[in-house]
From TrEMBL, chain A:
Membrane-traversing stretches: 12-29, 50-77, 97-116, 123-140, 160-182, 213-235, 247-263, 270-289, 295-316
Source organism phylogeny: Bacteria, Pseudomonadati, Pseudomonadota, Alphaproteobacteria, Hyphomicrobiales
Record membrane topology: Multi-pass membrane protein
Keyword set includes Membrane: yes
Annotated GO CC locations: plasma membrane
Function: Part of the ABC transporter complex LsrABCD involved in autoinducer 2 (AI-2) import. Probably responsible for the translocation of the substrate across the membrane.
Subcellular localization: Cell membrane
Alphabetized Pfam families for the sequence: BPD_transp_2
Source superkingdom: Bacteria
GO molecular function, one term: transmembrane transporter activity
InterPro entries recorded: ABC_transp_permease (IPR001851)
Protein name in UniProt: Autoinducer 2 import system permease protein LsrC
Provenance organism: Neomesorhizobium albiziae
UniProtKB/TrEMBL annotation, chain B:
GO cellular component, one term: plasma membrane
Membrane topology qualifier: Multi-pass membrane protein
PANTHER family, A to Z: ABC TRANSPORTER PERMEASE PROTEIN YPHD-RELATED-RELATED, RIBOSE IMPORT PERMEASE PROTEIN RBSC
Subcellular location: Cell membrane
UniProt keyword terms in alphabetical order: Cell membrane, Membrane, Transmembrane, Transmembrane helix
Protein name: Monosaccharide ABC transporter membrane protein, CUT2 family (TC 3.A.1.2.-)
A molecular-function term among this protein's GO annotations: transmembrane transporter activity
Signal peptide bounds: none
Segments crossing the lipid bilayer: 47-69, 76-94, 100-123, 130-150, 170-189, 218-240, 252-270, 277-296, 302-319
From TrEMBL, chain C:
CDD domains, A to Z: ABC_Carb_Monos_I, ABC_Carb_Monos_II
PANTHER family, alphabetized: CARBOHYDRATE TRANSPORT ATP-BINDING PROTEIN MG119-RELATED (PTHR43790), GALACTOFURANOSE TRANSPORTER ATP-BINDING PROTEIN YTFR (PTHR43790:SF9)
Cited Pfam families: ABC_tran
UniProt protein name: Ribose transport system ATP-binding protein
Keywords, alphabetical: ATP-binding, Nucleotide-binding, Repeat, Sugar transport, Transport
UniProt similarity note: Belongs to the ABC transporter superfamily.
Organism name: Neomesorhizobium albiziae
Length: 326, 323, 512
């Protein structure tokens, strides 16, 4: 069968992201002082998972040809909420987790409603809603603080069977429970179709609005899970401007590295996950090469700039210059 | 005076409902403010507000140019920081450095803006991505720079004078500078071929290209100007605060975009007047001021910001319904 | 036996776009188990007819009936449900999804609420097989397929819905000859199965092979319906042309045999597979028409000359000297002096929200300004001159161009280029969607410009117009110039016949 070739073509972006990640990770591990120990892997997995969750959220919206500049603030807001409610007995803790996820879901629904039913451009709408989300976060946690059920937190950020990072299992579970059903549902296909060609999707009778709305809502949920995980990681909550803007920026970078087209319709959240891990690993390369940590942000910025410029190669194939102006 | 009143009718006729709404909101805010404090309507207070607004105004001017093209510049935060820090740093190199501090800071912003412009116009990368990337690069550069060299970060006298002095008694220099920059922008937008091209590209780059415009060059220059103006805003902010700080630009991205959009400039490009941006800038500044007079914490300020922006856009900034 | 109720019927259906009528009280009846061909010139209302049938646009007046019951379609999805599937000329496929995804897009098979990919694959394979396109892999991305394969996917997608009425709008135009044979046998089988097929094509041989019934449209009306094979090609062409209105065209200058000095020449101009070895020359004061069916490379030729297309081969000469035009900036420069009136005035010609003043001077800003600053007095003078020259009716120079009528908008587009005094004027279907009065003004203007020495290349989808305005017409077919008609040879009949690529030039013998 020639099936695998088509599968390859469809997953090209994702596979490139996987390849970049593996290459980077090998360089990283082979130069790491401690080498491939469970501890090193676990730390890398935890940091990568944080970004991967936010990047998945961004990918969902980008697939519909939108953009969510509020993912970072939803991430921070849910972190602040989580630092209050995830305590007490297992039942209370579970209720707390549910509440945090609900907050994320609600934020996503607000974005979706403004963009789809309010007909505002995603970029301004999410800048505005992001300010609101961040304001609420600031109200909750102007200063770092709060607690979290440490048993749960340690379980989620620790290792299972002594070598397997729990965070990766959680990530796999999220992909299985949220992403795969979305990808395979009519709604998910509508989101892709709307992002790829809204006119053709309309002609084919695709439920465009429902598809887009679902993408925004699930993006909120995923960013919320990210915020939850951040709380497990830090045992506290903080309304930090810098983590909100950093995670928004990095989520877009991860999505681009992960082969999700900013014009919509192309790519997958799995690609975004690997994009996130790759981006994190690139950032951490600095450490293993014993370079000053000061250079890390510059290094990441330059990599990002080069990665997006690489996409411009497609321009050379344009035969009709009017196609520049889409 | 005669001439101004003579031109009023046409001026009013062409006023966008959005601009009128923004000015109405300014009046409303002033009234609300005067309930809290009688000094709210005093000349001193208003001049102070204008002075605070001028920094945002200069930054929003560049942002507006880019938004008119239908693009966006998200590199503003660190270009502001870079402009401020580079200007201060130049002062460490003797009298020549001190003299050239301001132009040097602006030049650095221009260079970064040029990178944005090349990326958007020639490589046709979405502006959101290029400018985010250059923002990261600028941030990286500044972190390396301050971390590695512990540079001079105090503002020069010239910078302080530009931001806080008063050439005309009673009128802060920052306001004068904004007026000059704004006047120049109005002139460029309304009286030059470049300005027409900016509006044309924002409306339909296809049509502008087929009309024989060098659309790529115009786009690149607009981004360069945006970078230069953001850096200039940073230089002034450093003068105002007497020193440059790394994250000083973070608080200006959202207000700059909001000011432009609230002033009736379409985020899709091609429509908007500088008068609207002025209204937007004053509106945002007054809103901030009132929220602080009301002693609302930063949190409440953020929430009201976001809510006001979305509410106003829902009022008049919606895209047409499909079918 | 009582008279059978047709499967589908439309009566008195009208549709207007702005001031232009596309359909006027059109009637149509569709019967199961037969292939009905729809014929008509460009703009006769065929596209609007099928858009209404498939729910893309709503009619202004008239009634649609299925099995004698009134129906109305709010969206393409509703028409689908009622059993009408349409294969559009502009493809309705989603480029980033796979072939199988696209085939089942409107109603994917589900299992536990999720799309059942195995079932989807089966449905897609079955549909592709029925369409005779087994060579297309269901997992392939549509974006990676060439145009002819996409068209086959489009056919399979329509078949997968098991429609009772299948509409094919120029569905064969992008296909290879081998595909056409396959598709035809598929269509014949569907007819035997009792499906009703509406077949729209410009290729007479295809119609002759397939159709049971033919319906001719002209100016938005159904003018004739007849059993296939009862009329000759010539009769059909006559019916398509008709004589409902005639334009008043300005007199053409009488010229001797002496050739005009060529201003614009091109030799062996080619671009991808859309332009093949185009050689032509246009003299000073000459109006040369580009004829043929829509989409045979005429637009591409104009864009190529104007420097928009990349990778053209061949030569372009201005005044006998080879030039390289790589952008509209060069094309409009003094040395070349070219102007292009683009295809779509709303997105390519005008900046609709901007004022008439700004639009008029937009192409000439380099001439109207000094040191980049616009000389407003000079701008005013130039604008006034253009308003007068073209008699543009506007409430003022400061109102948005979008507020003008279609005809006046088009005048603004032309005026903005005339302001540069171009020597070579390329027009891309400039009279589409404008009223008759303005059309006549434009015809006079074109002739006046030519008399002053301009060289004009004029593409139009209206044959009447080409005959009335042009000194010569070059007929395009499949990216190449198929025929050149001049003087007495330029009849509507000859144009239609050579556009349809009917062999032999005998058509000129027959006059209306």
């Amino acid at each position: 069968m020639r099936d695998w070739r088509y599968w390859l073509a469809e997953q090209r972006g994702t596979l490139i992201a996987v390849a970049i990640f593996i290459a980077m990770f090998i360089i990283y591990i082979s130069n790491h002082q401690a080498g491939l120990t469970a501890n090193v892997v676990n730390t890398a997995a935890n940091k990568g998972t944080l970004l991967a969750l936010v990047a998945m959220a961004q990918a969902l919206v980008v697939i519909t040809a939108g953009i969510d500049l509020s993912v970072g603030t939803i991430f921070v807001l849910t972190n602040c909420v989580a630092s209050y409610v995830i305590t007490g007995n297992p039942f209370e803790t579970a209720a707390g987790v549910a509440l945090v996820l609900l907050v994320g879901l609600l934020c996503g629904a607000i974005n979706g409603a403004i963009v789809i039913y309010g007909r505002l451009q995603p970029i301004v709408a999410t800048i505005g809603s992001g300010a609101v989300f961040f304001g609420v976060a600031l109200m909750l946690r102007p200063l770092p603080g709060g607690t979290v059920n440490e048993t749960l937190a340690d379980a989620m950020t620790g290792r299972i069977f002594g070598f397997m990072p729990a965070s990766l299992l959680m990530l796999a579970a999220i992909v299985a429970v949220i992403w795969v059903p979305f990808r395979r549902s009519v709604i998910g296909r509508a989101a892709y179709a709307a992002g790829s060609s809204e006119a053709a999707a309309y002609m084919s009778g695709v439920p465009i609005r429902r598809g887009k709305f679902a993408a925004y809502v699930l993006a909120g949920l995923l960013a919320g899970i990210g915020g939850l995980f951040l709380t497990f990681f830090t045992y506290s909550g903080q309304a930090s401007t810098s983590s909100a803007s950093t995670y928004t920026l990095f989520s877009i970078a991860a999505v681009v590295l992960g082969g999700v087209s900013l014009y919509g319709g192309k790519g997958s959240a799995v690609g975004a996950i690997f994009g996130a891990f790759a981006f994190r690993t690139i950032g951490d390369l600095m450490f293993v090469f014993d370079l000053d940590a000061l250079w890390q942000p510059l290094f990441q910025g330059v990599i990002l700039l080069l990665a997006v410029s690489f996409g411009a190669i497609g321009l050379l194939q344009v035969r009709n210059r009017l196609e520049w102006f889409r | 005076m005669e001439r101004i009143t003579g031109r009023m009718p046409r001026f009013l006729r062409r006023a966008d409902p959005a601009v009128a709404t923004a000015f109405a909101c300014i009046v409303l805010l002033l009234l609300i403010g005067s309930l809290y404090s009688s000094s709210f309507l005093s000349l001193d207070y208003l001049l102070l507000q204008l002075k605070v607004a001028s920094f945002l105004g200069i930054i929003a001017t560049g942002m507006m140019l880019v938004i008119l093209l239908g693009q966006i510049d998200l590199s503003v935060p660190w270009v502001i920081g870079m402009g401020a820090m580079m200007a201060c740093a130049a002062a460490a190199y003797g009298p020549l450095g001190t003299a050239l501090a301001v132009p040097f800071g602006v030049l650095c912003g221009l260079a970064l803006g040029l990178i944005n412009g090349v990326g958007v116009a020639y490589l046709r990368i979405p502006s959101m991505i290029v400018t985010l990337a250059t923002n990261a690069v600028a941030q990286g550069l500044m972190i390396v720079y301050t971390g590695g060299f512990a540079p001079r970060d105090t503002a020069t006298d010239a910078m302080r004078w530009l931001a806080t002095g008063a050439l005309i008694p009673g009128v802060p220099n920052a306001v004068l500078v904004w007026a000059l920059v704004g006047g120049a922008m109005v002139f460029v937008l309304t009286r030059t071929g470049f300005g027409r091209a900016v509006y044309g590209i924002g409306n339909s780059e296809r049509a502008a290209y087929l009309s024989g415009m060098s659309t790529r060059r115009v786009t690149m220059i607009a981004f360069a100007v945006s970078g230069a103006l953001a850096a200039f805003g940073g230089v002034l902010l450093a003068g105002y605060a007497s020193k440059a700080a790394q994250a000083m630009g973070d608080a200006y991205l959202l207000p700059a975009i909001a000011a432009v959009v609230l002033g009736g400039t379409s985020i899709l490009g091609g429509r908007g007047s500088y008068l609207g941006t002025v209204a937007g800038v004053i509106l945002i500044t007054l809103l901030q001021s009132i929220l602080s007079v009301m002693q609302l914490p930063e949190a409440g300020r953020q929430i009201i910001y976001g809510a006001v922006i979305i509410a106003m856009l829902l009022l008049y900034g919606r895209a047409p319904a499909s079918r | 036996m009582e008279e059978a109720i047709p499967l589908f019927q439309m009566t008195g259906v009208s549709k207007r776009y702005g001031g232009v009528r596309a359909l006027e009280a059109a009637d149509l009846a569709v019967e199961p188990g037969q292939i009905q061909a729809i014929l008509g010139e460009n703009g006769a209302g065929k596209s609007t007819l099928i858009k209404i049938m498939s729910g893309v646009v709503a009619p202004d007046a008239g009634q649609l009936m299925m099995h004698g019951q009134p129906v109305s379609f709010a969206s393409p999805a509703a028409a689908n449900k009622a059993g009408i599937a349409c294969i559009f000329q502009e493809l309705s496929l989603i480029p980033d999804l796979s072939v199988a995804d696209n085939i089942v897009i409107s109603d994917p098979p589900k299992r536990f609420g999720m799309i059942d990919r195995k079932a989807q694959r089966r449905v897609a394979e079955e549909a592709l097989r029925r369409a005779g396109a087994e060579d297309i892999h269901p997992a392939a991305l549509v974006a990676d397929l060439p145009l002819s394969r996409r068209q086959m996917v489009e056919i399979a997608k329509a078949l997968a819905r098991n429609p009772r009425i299948l509409i094919l709008d120029e569905a064969t135009s992008a296909l290879t000859a081998a595909d056409v044979t396959k598709v035809f046998s598929v269509l014949k089988r569907l007819r035997a199965d009792g499906m009703a097929l509406l077949f729209i094509s410009h290729r007479m041989n295809e119609i002759a092979e397939l159709a049971d019934v033919c319906t001719v449209f002209r100016n938005g009306r159904n003018v004739a319906t007849y059993a296939a094979g009862t009329r000759t090609d010539n009769d059909v062409v006559e019916m398509m042309i008709g004589r409902e209105y005639s334009h008043v065209f300005p007199a053409k200058p009488l010229r001797g045999e002496a050739a005009l000095p060529p201003v614009l020449e091109c030799r062996q101009l080619s671009w991808t597979n859309r332009l093949r070895d185009i050689s032509l020359s246009v003299g000073a004061g000459e109006v040369v028409g580009l004829g043929g069916l829509d989409g045979q490379g005429q637009r591409e030729l104009l864009l190529a000359l104007f420097g928009v297309l990349r990778g053209c081969t061949g030569k372009v000469l201005i005044d006998g000297k080879a030039v390289s035009i790589s952008s509209p900036v060069t094309a409009r420069s003094h040395a070349v002096g070219m102007a292009l009136i683009p295809e779509d005035r709303k997105t390519e010609g005008l900046l609709l929200p901007m004022s008439v003043r700004e639009n008029l001077s937009f192409s000439s800003l380099d001439r109207l300004s000094r040191w980049g600053i616009i000389d407003r007095a000079a701008e005013q003078i130039a604008n006034d001159e253009m308003l007068q020259l073209l008699e543009i009716k506007t409430a003022g120079l400061d109102i948005p161009a979008g507020a003008l009528s279609g005809g006046n908008q088009q005048k603004v587009v032309i005026a903005k280029w005339l302001m540069r005094n171009p020597r070579i004027i390329l027009l891309n279907d400039p009279t589409r969607g404008i009223d008759v009065g303005t059309k006549q003004e434009l015809y006079r203007l074109l002739r006046r410009l030519a008399d002053r020495g301009a060289s004009i290349l004029f593409y139009s989808t209206d044959y009447d117009e080409l005959i009335g305005c042009c000194d010569r017409v070059l007929v395009f077919y499949d990216g190449a110039i198929r025929r050149e008609l001049a003087g007495e040879e330029m009849t509507e009949h000859a144009l239609v016949a050579s556009a349809l690529n009917i062999p032999g030039g005998k058509a000129t013998e027959v006059r209306v």
